[in-house]
């Protein structure tokens, strides 16, 4: 790895796409197309939506009663028809939809025809359990074809899926199942990570103990190893359910604004928000962004390394690639097991053209040295995507040189669970700048403003807002409309506040600097400070806790907790271990603090709010800033 100083000297400001890639790009003239999307949105979006199948066309592209939007008003469709049937009927029955691989090199391919049959069987299975349109189904599954089929089976019959990342533990799972009031939970016996089986079923069993609205749990018994006792009347065997169900299931005719899924994401309070996405607009925009940002062609091999438990998995493993009829690689496991070249081994093996991952993974793999990727033939790569957090120029350059071999383009895609699809990036035909996400995508009108909503001049830091509604925007927060409305009220002017700090350069490239609110970004995972704090206080010895993020070279941020103990307890190494264990149990390993420090007092405002900002500045040896509201 080159040292930082030399890399800085080598960072050019701007990188032009190689001619060979440029001439293959579906979009050649970004500026013109963007202009049309803003000046003539009805025509623009109608043209895109017309590339897909609708039972009934929309009467109106957009109805906007701030902050509530309806897209493709009156349109009727089913997203699974567009993701599956459409391709099967167009001669792609035998085209591979997914190549699943695990850490041991096991491979399983599924064609569009087979996936349609699997989805239909499962959809009929869900129906037989009494699941129908509008019912919620929680999915707690490993990153596998079966998980994807579970999501699609819900969408087939109009049930609303709520996928919970399988790395979350009981507390986080229970909260999500309970909030959505899921009728059915779909899970698996286990997931595999670093050569170990991690059981999932026991976590589900614990999570639903008190949730009597959960009627059934469907269990994918991957190795046929669960005994009858492990089932009981509440539990249904996934494989048996599929076998006994019909492979034909007519898609439910869905209104464009019928809910498609809920996905929980961290906010600034202890309770995550159930971000709700609907059918038509989400379908159209994930289709368009996948096609144009990743330049999906008939023979493209595409690999997004995310997990289906996050929005990246929903939009860019499941719905976007399938709507485009692409062939995707999907992997269950971690990037460094059984060896830190495993990703590059699979890129070589499957001749992957588009590779989409997170900066935290790039920085981690960078550490193992340039020799590792150098061993593999990565010449198939054309587009390298980044997502989840700001990518520092060092990691960008490493990705560009050592993975792309200076022949692929890097696209740094900024978006959020709430936005449903990419919002800011450069298209592969367009020059990119290391560390700067780039330009707005079609229909997106971003601005960098101060707290009063005044637009700021170039190269000043402010709040990132979106000034107009876009098709794949969240429609509400499940059961909490006031939290939804807050996005549009935070900053005056009727704009959507993204919660990120950003600035625009003189060429109109947007650079995202990180969160402006009390939300952490740990290894690309979004975690609320308050969520970790409330997990810590579940430990019986803890009176109060405050959590901050500290810059971390690999993970972006690491978590530090300041803890006040209850009367009668004194600080000890054991307590630190126990507190970490508590967070792991309540939330999951990704939220466990790296550091725990015991303190007697926390800085608070006169109204009793913990000033995390002050703690953070002290910890990092920075200026304390305005502390006029500090209690003492
Ligand atoms: C937050 C959203 C969207 C998929 C994964 C995360 C940060 C996301 C970038 C990027 C800088 C980024 C922002 C955003 N973020 N992509 N390319 N550059 N920051 O989804 O969990 O909803 O988190 O991730 O802070 O607000 P999410």
From TrEMBL:
List each copy of the Acetyl-coenzyme A synthetase N-terminal domain by range: 30-83
Q: Which UniProt keywords apply?
A: Acetylation, ATP-binding, Ligase, Nucleotide-binding
Query: Which segments constitute the AMP-dependent synthetase/ligase domain?
Result: 90-470
Q: Which InterPro entries match?
A: Ac_CoA_lig (IPR011904), ACAS_N (IPR032387), AMP-bd_C (IPR025110), AMP-bd_C_sf (IPR045851), AMP-binding_CS (IPR020845), AMP-dep_synth/lig_dom (IPR000873), ANL_N_sf (IPR042099)
* One of the record's GO cellular component terms: cytosol
What Enzyme Commission number(s) does the record list for this chain?
A: 6.2.1.1
NCBIfam families, alphabetically?
Ac_CoA_lig_AcsA, PRK00174.1
- What is the recorded name of this protein? Acetate--CoA ligase
């Amino acid at each position: 790895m080159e040292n930082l100083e030399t890399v800085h000297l080598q960072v050019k400001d701007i990188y032009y796409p190689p001619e060979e890639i440029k001439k293959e790009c579906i979009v050649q003239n970004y500026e013109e197309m963007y202009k049309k999307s803003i000046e003539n949105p009805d025509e623009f979006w109608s043209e895109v939506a017309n590339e897909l199948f609708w039972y009934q066309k929309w009467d109106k592209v957009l109805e906007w009663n701030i902050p509530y939007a309806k897209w493709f008003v009156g349109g009727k469709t089913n997203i699974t028809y567009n993701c599956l049937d459409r391709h099967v009927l167009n001669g792609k029955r035998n085209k591979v939809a997914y190549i699943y691989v695990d850490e041991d090199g096991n491979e399983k391919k599924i064609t569009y025809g087979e996936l349609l049959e699997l989805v239909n069987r499962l959809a009929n299975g869900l129906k037989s359990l009494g699941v129908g349109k509008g019912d919620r189904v929680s999915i707690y599954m490993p990153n596998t074809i079966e998980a994807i089929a579970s999501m699609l089976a819900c969408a087939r019959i109009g049930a609303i899926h709520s996928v919970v990342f399988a790395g979350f533990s009981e507390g986080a799972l229970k909260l999500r199942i309970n909030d959505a009031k899921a009728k059915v939970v779909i899970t698996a016996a286990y997931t595999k990570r670093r050569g170990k089986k991690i059981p999932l079923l026991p976590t589900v069993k614990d999570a639903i103990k008190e949730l009597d609205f959960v009627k059934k749990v469907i269990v994918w018994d991957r190795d046929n190893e669960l005994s009858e006792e492990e089932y009981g009347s509440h539990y249904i065997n996934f494989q048996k359910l599929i076998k006994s169900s019909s492979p034909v299931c007519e898609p439910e005719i869905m209104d464009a604004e019928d809910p498609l899924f809920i996905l929980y994401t961290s906010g600034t309070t202890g309770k995550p928000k159930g971000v709700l996405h609907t059918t038509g607009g989400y379908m159209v925009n994930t289709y368009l962004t996948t096609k144009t940002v990743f330049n999906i062609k008939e023979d493209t091999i595409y690999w997004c390394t995310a997990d289906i438990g996050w929005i990246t998995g929903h939009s860019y493993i499941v719905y976007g690639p399938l709507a485009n009829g692409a062939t995707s690689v999907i992997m269950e496991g971690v990037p460094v097991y059984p060896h830190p070249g495993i990703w590059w081994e699979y890129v070589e093996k499957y001749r992957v053209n588009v590779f989409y991952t997170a900066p935290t993974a790039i920085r981690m793999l960078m550490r193992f040295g340039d020799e590792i990727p150098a061993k593999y033939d990565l010449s198939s790569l054309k587009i390298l995507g980044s997502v989840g957090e700001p990518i520092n120029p060092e990691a960008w350059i490493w990705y560009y040189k050592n993975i792309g071999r200076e022949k692929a383009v890097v696209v740094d895609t900024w978006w959020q669970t709430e936005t449903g699809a990419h919002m800011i990036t450069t298209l592969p035909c367009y020059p990119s700048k290391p560390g700067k996400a780039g330009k707005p995508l079609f229909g997106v009108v971003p601005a960098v403003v101060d707290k009063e909503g005044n637009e700021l001049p170039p190269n000043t830091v402010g709040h990132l807002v979106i000034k107009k509604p876009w098709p794949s925007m969240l429609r509400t927060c499940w059961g909490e409309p006031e939290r939804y409305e807050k996005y549009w009220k935070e900053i005056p002017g009727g704009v959507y506040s993204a919660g990120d700090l950003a600035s625009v350069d003189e060429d109109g490239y947007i650079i995202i600097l990180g969160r402006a609110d009390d939300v952490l970004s740990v290894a690309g995972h979004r975690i609320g400070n308050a969520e970790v704090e409330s997990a810590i206080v579940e430990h019986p010895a803890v009176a109060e806790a405050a959590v901050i993020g500290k810059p971390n070279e690999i993970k972006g941020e690491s978590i530090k907790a300041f803890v006040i103990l209850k009367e009668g307890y004194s600080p000890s190494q054991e307590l630190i271990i126990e507190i970490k264990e508590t967070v792991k149990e309540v939330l999951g390993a990704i939220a466990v603090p790296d550091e725990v420090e015991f303190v007697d007092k926390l800085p608070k405002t006169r109204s009793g709010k913990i000033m995390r900002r002050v703690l953070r500045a002290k910890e990092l040896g920075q200026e304390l800033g305005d502390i006029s509201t500090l209690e003492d």
